[in-house]
Structure of CBPM Carboxypeptidase:
Amino acid sequence: ILCLVSVAAALEFKYHHTEELEEYLKGVHAAHPSLTHLHSIGRSVEGRDLWVLVLGRFPTHHKIGIPEFKYVANMHGDETVGREILLHLIDFLVTSYGRDPVITRLLNNTRIHIMPTMNPDGFEATKVPDCYYTRGRYNRNGEDLNRNFPDAFENNSANIQPETRAVMDWIKNETFVLSANLHGGALVASYTFDNGNPVTGSLKGYSRSPDDDVFIHLAKTYSSNHASMYKGTGCDNRQTFPEGITNGYSWYQLEGGMQDYNYVWGQCFEITLELSCCKYPPADQLEKFWRDNKVALIEYIKQVHLGVKGQVTDKNGNPIPNAIVEAKGRPHVCPYRTNEQGEYFLLLLPGTYVINATVPGFKSMLKTVEIADNTGNFSALKQDFSFSEVSDQIRSRVASCPKTPLYQELTRASAAVKPTLHVLVLMTIMLVMFK
């Protein structure tokens, strides 16, 4: 045990290959068994475990009212800074718990999942560190994992990889509310949508989600707390990012990205953090990268407590899963639904909103809420819904949204309406002229 404790305590600023990474994570868990839970969500093509360390007061399971947060790094195997700073984030969290009141409250009220590497095969394949492209970007099958998810706008022909499938199942099995995936090659916080069509504003060079205001806030939260990202200086003279943020589509169009998948199908708001101009910088720069990102990493986690949360129950107080709960005026193309405990979490900025809860086959319930900024209190506003007409024999069992290009359907529906409107207008004009 003493040996494991020393391993957990001696985290150096260097690159940790697979065995060292595993040894460190196992050492942390052994040293902090009541605060952490270590598990593998799957295996890479070459059979390496995809390790996730969970931290919190209840690390082994979801607790009602406590939101789930995740960080994922090293999705591109040659983009390495995120992989290492997440190890130092783990170290900071476990050593600060019980000593720092802010970190203690954060861990008592948040379940934090950290995956240091989603592409361990790619990392190991990068034999010579390089600031630019290397073949380690891809997984062992030569697939770009950030082009490998189902896409909401067009059919993605890529074969789903084991690493991608593991993350999709992970998202399905947890109630993730907020997330970020850590990359390299630029210095910017990029947000949904990465892909788009005329319905989301692609003709104007910007793909806007229904929660665009929240995404801008999330991206600015990270960039403004970063040592230099907020300055908006690009990695060369040709590219700048005002306030250090960008809409993904405005930067460049991307099909099959993980952040759009999280938002559309996972009910999880995710942004992409580009943390270094150099993809695989020298190890002696890692300490500075940690200092530059430390505050931003913590402040971003706090945003999981934005908005409103609650439970939807029947007349006997039993939870109703798959009830639709959304803020009026911002419906999602794949409606956000309650989990098996009847819980919902909606990230919303401070303001007045009407929350609409719907159990299919019954009258919707509307409640007006006044949302304050509760991130400092580590708890979103609580608003429950009780359907007195629903008994535990009548439950909503609607399946999750299919993995099809949902916004493609929306475009067709939108286009189908236009001729109808034109016909109505012409008929009205003709009727007036006849009279």
Remarks:
- The CA atoms of residues 262 and 268 lie 5 Å apart.
